[in-house]
Amino acid sequence: KAGVTQTPRYLIKTRGQQVTLSCSPISGHRSVSWYQQTPGQGLQFLFEYFSETQRNKGNFPGRFSGRQFSNSRSEMNVSTLELGDSALYLCASSLENLQETQYFGPGTRLLVL
Amino acid sequence: GQNIDQPTEMTATEGAIVQINCTYQTSGFNGLFWYQQHAGEAPTFLSYNVLDGLEEKGRFSSFLSRSKGYSYLLLKELQMKDSASYLCAVTGFQKLVFGTGTRLLVSP
Fold first, then answer.
1. Which residue among A62, A71, B15, B33 is the one 20 to 30 A from B107 at the CA level?
2. pLDDT (tens digit, 9 = 90+) per residue, B62-76?
């Protein structure tokens, strides 16, 4: 089976812009979750999607949003980018929920200038 | 809320044994994961403990004490390729919370 894929792998944006990141889960996996990883804060949970619905949400502002499509692919959007949004954004998938092993994609490295 | 503590960095020599500790305080607990993350790569699954006790998987073992809010990852016969960050993560109340990770440096 192919692993979790994320596009793009690298992005450079400027403050105030918006960005959309894409994640394709492992075939058959219906739970997709998103994380932000920075050197200071580590891996922080953004949200989880299941059956096209956001099921869980971390403590991030409303500028961070996402959606999931019927084929379980997911997108994450960040609006009005800030310098502090520079980070590695990781997507992970599992069969059903967060209590199972999460399989991570390679991540999208976002740099906000 | 949930709080997870791990040492920031540890060093060890090839062939040795190292224990990476993780303590947590949570308002809900289902289980505890350990993930390994090499620099520039995605985290990969190592272990998942739900019940108290030791789970052994080859050179790696993981221990959990739910009453003490404590876990450790034990790495035996260290190899250079074990140099990586080790992330402890707690799942509960439909959230997955990661610690900031322990960077392990293995020297010859």
1. B33
2. 999 999 999 999 999
Q: Which of A102, A103, A108, A109 to mutate to test the interface with B (most CBs of B within 10 A)?
A: A102
* Cα(B101)–Cα(B36) distance, integer angstroms: 9
Contact between B86 and B102 under an 8 Å Cβ cutoff? The reply is yes
Residue numbers in B near A45 (CB within 8 A):
95-98
**Residue A95 in tokens:** 């069969």
CB contact (8 A) between residue B45 and residue A90: no
Q: In this predicted model, what pLDDT tens digit does every residue of A24-61 receive, in sequence order?
A: 999 999 999 999 999 888 899 999 999 999 999 988 99
- pLDDT at position B1, please? 61
Residue B3 contacts A where some CB pair is shorter than 8 Å? no
Q: Looking up tokens 């009005």, which residue turns up?
A: A80
